[in-house]
Design a protein that fits this description.
By secondary structure, the chain is α+β, with helices and mostly antiparallel strands. It is built from 15 helices and 16 strands. The structure holds zinc ion.
Length: 478
């Protein structure tokens, strides 16, 4: 028996304004119903105007997943009644979507992030639509928040090319990286910017027929996607055993996150009738082949290429993957790498140290120091003001307090002593205080020198520049 899985992915585009009006597209954390206007509230007589930025971003995303952009497409009204949809219809694209026929290549990785298999998933289509509002159910009342209503979405539909829950997750993660890389979506899972509907059916291995499927609605995390598909695959297998075959018709189920199981929503024999018809208020969109080609050529490198490039700089697969998955971390790494031209050092500062300290303090990358402070830290280390070791301590403090490196170094009195006269004075003091060590060094015991350097480091509370101490000491004794 094998599982046949396809996904519908909804990704929110990171535009300044909503899909068809000028309302702020960033409503996360805002009070309910503040980023709304008569257009996104679906008032009669209002005119929706497509957001150019959203169309441009959807085109980029479609090209990055190797779709063909239709020379012309249009919007359609998809009618249904639900309290989160004030207009009574969603503006979507039905029979003439923006783009069709793409392909995503992705890796299946082991626990360390090392690729163990290469896979491909064909993309059926990518179209644009607007999101609905958000409902919150409290007891016998339902609260409506329309901040999200009208938010620009891309719906990306795959062919049924995925064969397991793990496979689906690996694909979805690669798709997320691609959308982020081309700047079409922030795809922040925590903020619900990427959601999945997953369809699964079973068939006997070696057969090619597609059996009726179970569609799992509204999965909001990779974990939910994986668990829901694993659960549904097992459930369908048991049903197959009991009934002696596949489902009789398509069904729709919901995923209960807490209970970790699916629940039947609809058992239907016919497709829903949404009474689609072309949106009369928005003229068709047209694309010029030359312009599309120019956009394709200007696309940034895709995450898999980027990962290979990072690996060629000497980073491990796991490090490359961490950067790949976190644009904020990547931005910091790139800046430090540009300054130091040393990928291993940049990875040590940004991945090992910064990410490590953030994790230990339960913080996100965006809560920690930004690029300017990190570059400043590299500068003070390179100038010899503090040692690389002291730099770690400073970075930990930066993560904890949010202060600039200079401030922390001044407050903690950590400045490395590199000043020649100060070092010379310390060395003189050390020679006077350790006559025996000097004596044994002169008799040929070179290890005695270490003891004197140690004395200086202790005396200066670790702040003397050890290379300079050595230099002066050699000069003096010889
Ligand atoms: Zn609006």
């Amino acid at each position: 028996m094998e599982a046949i899985i396809g996904l519908e992915v909804h990704a929110q585009m990171n535009t300044k304004t909503k899909m068809f009006c000028g309302c702020d597209n960033d409503a996360f954390g805002k009070p309910p119903n503040v980023t709304v206007c008569p257009i996104c509230m679906g008032h009669p007589g209002t005119l929706p105007v497509p957001n150019k930025e959203a169309v441009a971003k959807a085109v980029k995303a479609a090209l990055a997943i190797r779709c063909t952009i239709a020379p012309a497409c249009h919007f359609d009204r998809k009618h249904y009644f639900y309290p989160d949809l004030p207009a009574g219809f969603q503006i979507s694209q039905y029979d003439f979507p923006l783009a069709k026929g793409g392909l995503v290549e992705y890796d299946i990785t082991d626990a360390s992030g090392k690729p163990v298999a290469e896979r491909q998933c064909r993309i059926t289509r990518l179209h644009m639509e607007n999101d609905a509002g958000k409902l919150t159910h409290r007891g016998d009342r339902t609260l409506c928040d329309y901040n999200r209503a009208g938010t620009p979405l891309m719906e990306i539909v795959t062919e049924p090319d995925l064969r397991s829950a793990e496979d689906a997750v690996a694909f979805a993660q690669e798709l997320r990286r691609i959308l982020i890389a081309v700047g079409a979506s922030d795809a922040d899972m925590f903020k619900g910017m990427m959601r999945f509907d997953a369809s699964i059916s079973l068939r006997e291995k070696g057969t090619t027929k597609l059996n009726p499927r179970s569609e799992i609605k509204n999965l909001n995390s990779f974990k939910a996607l994986e668990k829901a598909l694993q659960y549904e695959e097992k459930r369908l297998a048991k049903l197959w055993e009991k009934e002696g075959g596949p489902l009789k018709n398509d069904i729709t189920v919901g995923w209960l996150d807490e209970e970790e199981k699916t629940r039947m929503l609809r058992d239907k024999e016919t497709a829903d009738d949404y009474r689609y018809f072309p949106e009369p208020d928005i003229p068709p969109l047209q694309f010029d082949a030359k312009e599309i080609e120019a956009v394709r050529k200007a696309l940034p490198p895709l995450p898999r290429e980027e990962k290979k490039k990072l690996a060629s700089l000497g980073l491990t697969e796991a490090e490359a993957l961490q950067l790949n998955d976190d644009p904020e971390l990547m931005q910091r790494f790139s800046a430090v790498y540009q300054k130091t031209k040393d990928a291993k050092r940049a990875s040590s500062i940004v991945i090992t140290q910064l990410k490590g300290f953030l994790g230990a303090q339960g913080k996100q990358v965006s809560d920690g120091p930004g690029v300017p402070d990190l570059l400043k830290l590299v500068e003070v280390i390179d100038s010899g003001s503090i040692s690389a070791n002291a730099g770690k301590e400073v970075l930990e403090s930066m993560v904890e307090t949010g202060k600039a490196p200079d401030t922390i170094i001044a407050e903690k009195g950590m400045k490395q002593i590199s000043d020649d006269s100060a070092i010379e004075a310390l060395v003189d003091k050390a020679i006077a205080a350790n006559p025996q060590a000097i004596e044994s060094f002169r008799k040929g015991k070179s290890a005695a020198l270490g003891a004197i350097v140690g004395w200086v480091m202790k005396e200066s509370r670790g702040q003397a520049n050890p290379a300079k101490v050595n230099e002066f000491l050699m000069k003096k004794i010889k």
